[in-house]
Design brief:
- The complex is a heterodimer of chains A (about 250) and B (about 500).
- Chain A is α/β, with parallel strands linked by helices.
- Chain A has two domains: about 45 residues, no CATH class; about 180 residues, Rossmann fold.
- In chain A, about 35% of the residues lie in helices and about 20% in strands.
- Chain A contains eight helices and twelve strands.
- In chain A, the strands form three sheets. Chain A has a six-stranded parallel sheet with strand order 1-12-7-4-2-3, with helices on both faces.
- The longest helix of chain A is centred in the N-terminal third of the chain and has 33 residues.
- Chain A is globular and about 65 Å long.
- In chain B, helix 16 packs across helix 18.
- In chain B, strands 1-10-7-4-2-3 form a six-stranded parallel sheet, with helices on both faces. In chain B, strands 8-5-6-9 form a four-stranded mixed sheet, sandwiched between helices.
- Chain B contains 23 helices and twelve strands.
- Chain B is an alpha/beta fold.
- The chains are: A alpha/beta (about 250), B alpha/beta (about 500).
- Chains A and B meet through helix 1, helix 7, helix 8, strand 9 and strand 10 of A and helix 2, helix 3, helix 4, strand 1 and helix 8 of B.
- Strand 9 of chain A pairs antiparallel with strand 9 of chain B.
Chain lengths: ~250, ~500
């Protein structure tokens, strides 16, 4: 059987599975309704307790406090934070760090703001790859071998010290995950107080607006699985820089 | 039934507890870790503030979702399908295993990389995968160690809590084929490298599911190591096993769960990674799975639906706070419970999932009913009350233990003049009130009865339960004296409500 036929038969099998699943869905859900001793609810139920308590939704810090709190939280879990005025400063910081660490492979997201940093020109000795810029490449391997991954945060939350990154064809999930060091640029206006200020976009945008991967990153990868001894960099990046710019 | 295999390792909780207690290291490690986690939780609660309001909100969201589970689960399924996910339903563990294996066979999978999932433990899925020649690889550091040792997790959050670094170095050295120093960094470094290769070569990534968001069809994972992200980013196929009650309505509700879960589990403000995955990779994406399956598992969960005494079990968010708070867990460790889920939640969930009170009756006795589990629970599940219900059902079903009753007599003789046990007896009385309805006390013996057989059983090995009893007794007694007035009020309120003939708040609609 050639690959095309194999794929076709796999697609047929998936269709069969879906038909079986849809048939079962009715009995599965009806079984739940029966246990709840009432007919299936079809109208959206009133949800008076949706989301965080009201006092929390009104909670907001000023910009400097958001920066201070984010910094304190990120440092406390072993991350690094730099406060930078401009993207030129960010470029300088990243290239200095890359030189200091003798980075050979760097992978960055395919975004105009990062393009403008011209890391390729600034780091002639390193191989800087741009995520998904060449369909022939095996991009997961490029990210896995990278010393440094460079991303721009879509959002950040000060209260928990979290960076939020959303995936797209130009923004690989691997870039913030596989390299040894992660550099995340946070434009200061994207730094919010609460997680809820970020999540509200996903509710409002609705299902069809969401990317495949939404990741909240709150420091370097860690584990305490061996005798409660904190280990950094178990699977994800062990060194994480949050560069707050603007 | 495969679910019972954990039970066959020892004959009863008491036997397994003896085993656990003979291992001095385990006792110390469990105590150290649980105290550390408990301390972290208390600190996080205090720092965050308004903890009671958050807890109440968490409880209300869970109650609301479970009360409308048919609606929200259906909505989740429709949205997940619209995202391109292949959704499957499994009434039983066997069905869930069958579906998982069919997918693995279809994909000609050689290996499956797994991130932590209690549901797959519940299904004994690793075993099943091996049986068809597929290598299952646990990728959470602790789980990987446990898998090499051929054991099961002993704590929901820190699965290898019972192993020291020398034992771990031995296991990993055997795996590496070279001697690794018993140094945490060296050992973790080895696992990182080894598992990198496994992630890149695996055909399937398999995960559990902390929450599933009905309105967008997204599944959410909380973790610290990054292995769950690996498992959902690198392999071409993703299979997620999800308990049917994992649903929450919206991302707004996720903020509440994200506030409660990490703080309760480890005292963190948020786990290092929280990932919301909405369908397989988009066609132009260069990573993420091409094919994504979600298997929705019942496996006994629906037994709790519509049962006023146990429905709130479905509210559980699997944080492990009740384990860390429980004086009994701290002494006997997780394996003594014998099921997939240990601690107070396991003591109630295991028999409840299996509808098998006779076989699991002894677990309910491995609790002091001190209420620490309820107080620790971020969604306010009244576990201590459920333990009383479970004992009552056991007696009603005619599974009362004769030896235990005899023991109770001996026990009261020894203790009848002792003021030391007044506090416990007081709680015993309250426990009786809780199960008294229509002026009739159906449970004749107090909640203490679980302890008496441990107390009077002869021939315990030295340094066993009996020797630990002093500390445990003190801890329980102190715990009792410290029982918060509001909790006492709550328990009394329940009794009062019942006297008024009212329900107990479970029948939310």
């Amino acid at each position: 059987m050639d690959m095309g036929t194999a794929n076709q038969s796999h697609q047929e099998w998936l269709k069969e599975m879906e038909a079986a699943s849809r048939a079962k869905q009715t009995s599965f859900i009806d079984g739940i309704s029966a246990k709840l001793r009432r007919p299936m609810v079809t109208e959206p139920p009133r949800h008076p307790f949706r989301g965080a308590p009201d006092f929390w939704n009104a909670y907001e810090w000023g910009e400097q406090e958001r920066i201070d709190r984010f910094t304190a939280n990120f440092l406390s879990v072993g991350g690094h934070v730099e406060r930078l005025a401009t993207m030129e400063d960010a470029q300088r910081f990243i290239t200095d760090k890359a030189n200091e660490l003798s980075a050979k492979y760097i992978v960055r997201q395919n975004q105009p703001e990062l393009e403008a940093l011209n890391l390729e020109g600034a780091l002639p000795d390193a191989q800087v790859s741009v995520w998904n810029s060449d369909p022939e490449q095996f991009w997961k391997a490029r990210a896995a071998e990278a010393d440094i991954g460079v991303v721009i945060a879509d959002y950040a939350a000060a209260y928990t010290g979290s960076i939020t990154v959303l995936s797209s064809k130009d923004k690989g999930r691997s870039v913030s995950l596989l390299p040894t060091v992660l550099m995340a640029i946070i434009p200061v206006e994207r730094l919010k107080t609460r997680l809820g200020e970020i999540m509200v976009h996903f509710d409002e945008g609705g299902r069809a607006s969401l990317p495949a991967g939404i990741h909240f990153i709150s420091g370097p990868s860690r584990s305490a699985d061996i005798e409660n001894d904190l280990t950094i960099g178990v699977h994800g990046p062990g060194v994480v820089y949050a560069l707050i710019v603007g | 039934m495969s679910g019972a295999s954990g039970h066959s390792k020892g004959s009863s909780v008491k036997d397994r507890a003896d085993l656990a207690l003979n291992n001095e290291f385990l006792r110390k490690a469990v105590k150290y870790t649980t105290e550390k986690l408990k301390g972290g939780k208390l600190k996080a609660m205090e720092e965050h503030g308004n903890w009671e309001e958050w807890r109440e909100r968490g409880k209300q969201i869970r109650l609301h979702t479970i009360a409308h589970l048919d609606y929200y689960l259906n909505l989740f399924v429709d949205n997940a399908r619209a995202n391109g996910v292949h959704v499957h339903f499994a009434n039983t563990a066997e069905e869930a295993v069958h579906i998982s294996l069919s997918i693995a066979e279809r994909k000609n999978a050689k290996s499956v990389v797994k991130s932590k999932s209690m549901v797959t433990e519940e299904l004994h899925l690793n075993h099943a995968l091996e049986s068809i020649g597929v290598e299952p690889v646990e990728t959470d550091l602790g789980e990987y160690i446990i898998q090499l040792a051929g054991e099961t997790p002993s704590h929901i959050i820190i699965p290898a809590i019972h192993k020291n670094r020398y034992q771990i170095a031995d296991l990993l050295s055997a795996d590496a084929g070279e001697t690794l120093e018993p140094d945490t960094k060296v050992l973790a470094g080895y696992v990182r490298k080894k598992l990198r290769e496994k992630f890149l070569e695996a055909d399937i990534g398999m995960t559990g599911c902390n929450f599933a968001i009905a309105e967008t069809g997204s599944m959410v994972l909380f973790e610290n190591e990054g292995n769950a992200r690996m498992v959902t980013t690198v392999p071409e196929t993703q299979i997620t096993l999800m308990g049917m009650e994992r649903i929450i309505p919206s991302w707004a509700d996720l903020e509440v769960m994200a506030t409660l879960l990490p703080r309760s589990a480890t005292g963190q403000k948020l786990t290092v990674y929280m990932s919301g995955i909405t369908g397989p990779r988009r066609s132009e994406d260069a990573d993420g799975p091409e094919e994504m399956h979600i298997i929705i598992v019942d496996n006994g969960r629906s037994l709790q639906l519509g049962d006023p005494e146990f429905q709130e079990l479905l509210n559980c968010i699997r944080c492990g706070a009740c384990l860390n708070a429980c004086p009994v867990y701290r002494h006997i460790g997780g394996h003594a419970y014998g099921g997939t889920y240990s601690g107070p939640i396991g003591a109630v969930l295991t028999p409840s999932l299996q509808k098998n009170i006779a076989e699991w009756d002894d677990i309910a006795n491995a609790s002091s009913l001190c209420g620490a589990c309820y107080e620790a629970c971020p969604v306010k599940i009244p576990l201590h009350e459920m333990l009383v219900y479970l004992r009552r059902r056991k007696v009603e079903a005619g599974h009362g233990n004769k030896l235990e009753s005899a023991g109770m007599i001996g026990f009261s003789k020894i203790m009848s003049n002792s003021a030391r046990f007044k506090a416990i007896l007081k709680l015993g009385k309250m426990g009786q009130k809780l199960v008294a309805r229509n002026g009739e006390i159906r449970l004749k013996v107090g909640p203490l009865k679980g302890w008496n057989s441990h107390r009077v059983t002869p021939s315990l090995p030295k340094k066993s339960f009996r020797d630990q009893w002093g500390t445990m007794e003190a801890e329980i007694r102190n715990g009792l004296q410290e029982m918060a007035p509001d909790m006492k009020n709550r328990m009394e309120q329940i009794v009062k409500n019942r006297e008024k003939g009212g329900g107990n708040g479970h029948g939310h609609s």
